[in-house]
Write a structure and sequence with these properties.
The complex is a heterodimer of chains A (221) and B (74). By secondary structure, chain A is α/β, with parallel strands linked by helices. Chain A has one domain: Class I glutamine amidotransferase (GATase) domain (Rossmann fold, 3-Layer(aba) Sandwich). Chain A contains five helices and eleven strands. In chain A, the strands form two sheets. Chain A has a nine-stranded mixed sheet with strand order 2-1-3-4-11-10-9-6-7, sandwiched between helices. Chain A starts with a strand and ends with a helix. In chain B, 24% of the residues lie in helices and 28% in strands. The chains are: A alpha/beta (221), B alpha+beta (74). Chains A and B meet through loops of A and helix 1 of B.
């Protein structure tokens, strides 16, 4: 069972739920809930939780449901943060780094190609290194940043999960990084939106692969 | 006490807002302005000033990307 978090200001939770339902069962989890009982995988969706006040994701990290997400993550449960969800997980310290305003200062909405860099994470298991995924980005604050020493460590430990394909970095992200994981690999965050790429009707169903990867591991024993 | 917290992008981090402001200035005849950085100003009242640093570290600023400065203003 997937659980999709819903904060005031989330806007991609329904697409995330629909994406999860293509590969398994899913339900919404309101941000005031303090338990994730019965949930095998968590999606923290995109949007503008709490109006992006102060910094994107800064306030959502204090939501009651986030304590449960932290516990869930620390016990090895798979957690995927998409766009604002990525920002929330970085602010919560569950993922390294931070997201800064795009270098071009514009809101971006376009299809990009991603390259799979690591297949060690819960959401890229079963994919091949070098696989290309066509997935849209839509954000204002998507420039991945971490100090150079941290970036070296992330690369050395295989925590860079996805990169923008060459010459397609849309926002000035450090080392073309589009998605990272925690050290164990069960928590993954990315700026692009796999939940918007789950049907050939809208141009690509490559995004489904990330949900399918975890559906296999999240299936009840 | 009242305090003012100034939050700025850390030195060395590209600040596209500051750059955009800087690029707009010559059009208005302000040719000699450099290194514009745009940050945030938070004003607050607190009974106990000793927690302000922790409050900045945990919420008002993200220490990875921002510096903060607390000014007591009475």
């Amino acid at each position: 069972m997937f659980g999709v978090l819903q904060f005031p200001g989330s806007c991609d939770e329904r697409d995330a739920l629909a994406a999860c339902e293509r590969v398994g069962e899913a339900r919404m989890v309101w941000h005031e809930k303090t338990s994730l009982e019965g949930i095998d995988a968590v999606v923290v969706p995109g949007g503008f939780s709490y109006g992006d006040y102060l910094r994107a994701g800064a306030i959502a990290r204090f939501a009651p449901a986030m304590d449960a997400v932290r516990e869930f993550a620390e016990s090895g449960g798979p957690v995927l943060g998409i766009c604002n969800g990525f920002q929330v997980l970085c602010e919560a310290g569950l993922l390294p780094g931070a997201l800064l305003p795009n270098d071009g200062l514009r809101f971006l909405c376009r299809q990009v190609d991603l390259e799979v860099v690591s297949t060690e994470s819960a959401f890229t298991r079963g994919l091949e290194v070098g696989d290309r995924l066509s997935v849209p980005v839509k954000h204002m604050t998507g420039r991945y940043f971490a100090p150079p020493g941290t970036l070296d460590e992330l690369e050395a430990r295989g925590q860079v999960v996805l990169r923008y394909a060459p010459a397609q970095n849309p926002n000035g992200s450090a080392r073309d990084i589009a998605g990272v994981s925690n050290e164990v690999g069960n928590v993954v965050g990315l700026m692009p939106h796999p939940e918007h790429a789950v049907d050939p009707l809208t141009g690509s169903d490559d995004g489904l692969k990330l949900f399918a990867a975890v559906a296999k591991t999240a299936a009840p024993a | 006490m009242k305090a003012r917290v100034l939050i700025r992008p850390k030195k060395g981090i590209l600040d596209p807002q500051g750059k955009a402001v800087e690029r707009a200035l010559p059009a208005l005849g302000f040719d000699s302005v450099r290194d514009v950085r745009v940050g945030r100003l938070v004003e607050l009242e607190a009974d106990d000033a000793s927690h302000l640093g922790e409050l900045c570290e945990k919420l008002l600023a993200n220490p990875l990307i921002e510096d903060y400065e607390i000014q007591e203003i009475g």
